[in-house]
Amino acid sequence: MPPRTxxxxxxxxxSAVTLPAEFYRRPADIVARELLGxxxxxxxxxxxxxxQIHETxxxxxxxxxxxxxxxxxxxxxxxxxGPAGYWYTYLIYGMHWMLNVVTGEVDQPxxxxxxxxxxxxxxxxxxxxxxxxxxxxxxxxxxKSGLWIEDRGYTIRRGGILRTPRIGIDYAGAWxxxxxxYVLKDS
DNA sequence: GCAGTGATCATA
DNA sequence: ATGATCACTGCC
Length: 187
Fold this sequence. Notes:
Layout: H1 3-14, E1 17-18, H2 21-24, H3 28-35, E2 39-44, E3 47-59, E4 87-92, E5 96-102, E6 111-117, E7 120-121, H4 123-130, E8 147-151, E9 161-164, E10 181-184
Antiparallel strand pairs: 1-8, 2-3, 2-8, 3-6, 3-10, 4-5, 5-6, 6-7, 9-10
The protein binds a DNA duplex (12 and 12 nucleotides) through strand 4, strand 5 and helix 4.
């Protein structure tokens, strides 16, 4: 590897900063949009993998007819009613783990679903690739959990984000058409 | 187009 | 205890 390239990469790594809890303590749609281009980082033992996030969805609160928190606080959704910056994982269709991060204020259930990062397309495949499951439920998005998110200085070009309705929520009435899915165009 | 797969929750 | 549902994926 040429020295110049190595120097640039080292500079990029040095500028990486783990997103703080305050980043997540905002409306889910804002967080979902700003998570694009950030890096989802997974550490297992000595191995560290960082994947650039290119697709997210926002579930914005109890009034959102697609949000799991709409039926109140249950065993599964309890973490969504807690503070922002914690992982919400759940199993769907008996097979696929989904990864979300809790956003917003305490007692107001909201989260962002990770639908794509790196070469993974789809929330189930992403969790399979990074070995994410029930063990992450309720853990903070920090290095000590082995799963966190970094800002590595990537800036999205103007008009670089596509907004569409969310996937797989046709039951959600008026909310099924709201553009709460965010996609990085050059992904 | 649709089967696979099992946790979760409401109902009883 | 039982049954419906489900923020998906991969193969037909």
